[in-house]
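Q: Could you fold this chain for me?
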Amino acid sequence: MSTIERRLNKLEEIRNRNDVGDEVDKLFEKMGTSRAAMLADFGSLWKFRDWLVARSAAADHQAGVPIAAHPRQWQGDCAISAKWDAILDHADALQSAASAP
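A: Sure. Below is the predicted structure, expressed as structure tokens.
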């Protein structure tokens, strides 16, 4: 059994205990993607989280908000980053449209 299979099995065990994994899967589904697609692009939940932190830090930096350095910054493929930026931006736009009067 590969490392990723063991980790996914562990995630499934945790998910069965507290439904957090179900919520994440539902959010990915609402965004028109899946956890499997995210794992295919990033390789792990940690790398995806690091990418989210780096994305948030870049947005804060552009807004002029001082930021502290994150100890594990994401170093990855620009095409993957652009793809997931588009996915998240589209999801944010849909959510904003749904909440507008």
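A (continued): The chain is about 75% helix and 0% strand.
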